[in-house]
Write a structure and sequence with these properties.
Elements: H1 3-12, E1 21-26, H2 35-40, E2 45-48, H3 61-73, E3 77-82, H4 88-92, H5 97-113, E4 118-122, E5 133-137, E6 143-147, H6 149-160, H7 171-183, H8 186-197, H9 209-245, E7 248-252, H10 270-279, E8 285-290, H11 291-294, H12 302-308, E9 313-318, E10 321-323, E11 329-331, H13 341-355, E12 360-363, H14 383-406
Parallel strand pairs: 1-2, 1-12, 2-3, 3-4, 4-7, 7-8, 8-9, 9-12
Antiparallel strand pairs: 5-6, 6-11, 10-11
This protein binds D-mannose (DNO).
D-mannose is lined by residues 82-83, 120-122, 128-129, 202-203, 252, 290, 317, 364-365, 380.
Length: 407
């Protein structure tokens, strides 16, 4: 092909409508980071939820429309709901749970009536995402979120005193946990428990130690096989309605993607996803590809997963993590860490082009940097750290997209 022919081809192919839609999460009017901040960061879309409505209660058209109007007045669109939480009774199939499924369906109908059709949820029992430190010092002076397996073991074995907890850890981890626990003073213990069980932003529940232990034991009795069936049952009930409404229900993977406190985790690996889509093949049964969550397991090959489940991906979370010893990890810079972000975005670009779609993406979390350090924000959701992440990610994507056009 001559250079001028190649030049013509480059002008004909328009890749811009398959670039990821840039979004950020907004926790609603109480979020210290404003909609105007999000717009200035370059967002076209907003990811939000009606956190003021208790878990299990129907979201009314009125409330949904009010949130939508507020976002649109700021010059963006409400791209994705994160999350419409699944009530704990649905997860454990507690007596009377069918009513919560009916409520869920009604919320879906109301969301569709307002033209909102990508809905995130997760199926992690009791806890949503889990970290042990919300202000881990990075060498550059910023602060990050971290998960320390030794802290988790110390809490589990010596504070929660879960029966047989010690059997779930290697001897090394159990010994280090004992050392750690012995060195904690009362205020350290309170702080650790608060971080672990009081609930991070987005998780809709918080527990006392006793409540937590009791609730865990319920899931021990259920076990992973039955728990998986509970997820499938929920989807078998709601997906037919979601299909009709044109809604995509995107499941957020387990974070971290392995069992903690002996709780079943069933959306952690490519095999889990295979089973999920096979058990419930409905077109509404889809995936929120959370790179950071999946990346904690070395046996999750992220680019392969994007290609394999590409048709089911309707929402993307991009962040990086640095895996450490014993399953510990911290959230690293968006472009550096255990994930090869270049390869991952390349796979996303290919899938988006093949499908001819622009998939909403949010930079998932960010460090606290610059003015963030003196301000209050939801852990992981400070303004400047996320802006930096988004800026780096969109630059990388644009570079990849343009170079692929030129090939
Ligand atoms: C953490 C988030 C999660 C996520 C839910 C989805 O930052 O990715 O809280 O929103 O698990 O249901």
């Amino acid at each position: 092909m001559s250079l001028s022919e190649k030049g013509k081809l480059m002008t004909v192919i328009d890749y811009s409508n398959t670039l990821m839609e840039q979004t950020m999460r907004w926790f609603g009017p109480k979020d210290p980071v404003s909609l105007s901040n999000l717009r200035q960061a370059g967002c076209a879309g907003v990811v939000s939820a009606l956190h003021q409505i208790p878990n299990g209660v129907v979201w009314s058209v009125e409330d949904i429309q009010a949130r939508k109007d507020e976002i649109e007045a700021a010059g963006m669109r409400w791209s994705v709901v994160e999350s419409l939480p699944v009530h704990e009774d649905i997860k454990s199939q507690e007596l009377g749970f069918e009513q919560f499924i009916e409520n869920y369906k009604q919320s879906l109908r109301n969301l569709a009536a307002c033209d909102i059709n990508i809905i995130t949820y997760n199926f992690m029992p009791l806890l949503d995402w889990t970290r042990t430190s919300l202000s881990y010092d990075m060498p550059d002076g910023g602060k990050a979120l971290r998960f320390d397996m030794i802290d988790v073991a110390a809490y589990d074995i010596f504070m929660l005193k879960r029966p047989n907890a010690v059997d779930g850890y290697s001897e090394d981890v159990a010994a280090l946990a004992k050392e750690k626990f012995d060195a904690l003073d009362e205020s350290d213990k309170v702080a650790l428990e608060k971080t672990i069980v009081a609930g991070l932003p987005g998780s809709e529940v918080g527990f006392s130690t006793e409540q937590f232990l009791q609730a865990i034991m319920v899931y021990h009795d259920i076990g992973p096989e039955q728990y998986k069936q509970n997820l499938f049952y929920f989807l078998q009930q709601v997906c037919p309605i979601a299909d009709e409404l044109g809604i995509k229900l995107v499941v957020h993977p387990d974070d971290p993607p392995f069992t903690i406190y002996g709780l079943p985790r069933v959306v952690s690996t490519a095999e889990d996803l295979d089973e999920l889509f096979e058990a419930v093949p409905n077109e509404s049964n889809c995936l929120c590809f959370c790179a950071g969550s999946f990346s904690i397991r070395e046996d999750n090959y992220l680019e392969d997963m994007v290609r394999r489940f590409g048709d089911r991906i309707y929402f993307i979370h991009l962040r990086n993590t640095q895996r450490e010893q014993y399953g510990s990890f911290h959230e690293s810079q968006h472009l550096n860490g255990s994930i090869d972000m270049f390869e991952l975005i390349k796979a996303i670009v290919e899938v988006s082009r093949k499908r001819g779609v622009s998939i909403p993406m949010r930079p998932d979390h960010g460090h606290q940097i610059l003015d963030d350090l003196d301000k209050q924000a939801n852990p992981g959701y400070s303004a400047i750290g996320r802006l930096k992440g988004l800026a780096e990610l969109r630059g990388l994507e644009l570079g990849i997209a343009r170079s692929l056009v030129a090939l």
